[in-house]
Specification:
This protein is largely without helices or strands. The protein has two helices and no strands. The chain has one domain: Pectate Lyase C-like, CATH 2.160.20.
Amino acid sequence: MADPEHLEILKQGVKAWNEWRRQNVYLVPDLYGADLRGLDLQYVHFMRANLGEANLAGCNLRKSYLVGAYLHGADLSGCDLEGADMRGCHLSGAKLRGARLVGAVLNKALAVGVDFTGADMRSAMMLGTNLENSDFTGADMEDVDLTDAKLKGVKTEEVRGYRFPRR
């Protein structure tokens, strides 16, 4: 259950949230299970935030800072995550169906069993990311960097712009 105080600060807008984060650097924001659908969270600072099981469907998260965020089971379907910094985040079981991840950085992320169906992932970086059992069906993966990524069991039907190694 999300911390009501943290939700109230976020409702004041990204500027108020980011200022609060600057003043509370060591606090771990708890937005677990929060319904944040469709919010404009461009440039939001969610470093190490607990967003597990949160509903972020349709959010504008362009240029957001999600380093080390916990997003296990979160719904990010249709989100705009262009240029988002998601290094080391925990995305296992998350839904990113139809999300826009152009130029996003997901290096060293844990993304086991993620639904990337139909996602626009052009120029995304996923160096050393664990993507086992994830679904990339119909995703646009032109210029994606999967160096040292774990790809066991991934679904790759109709992927555009990237050639996965034959299994």
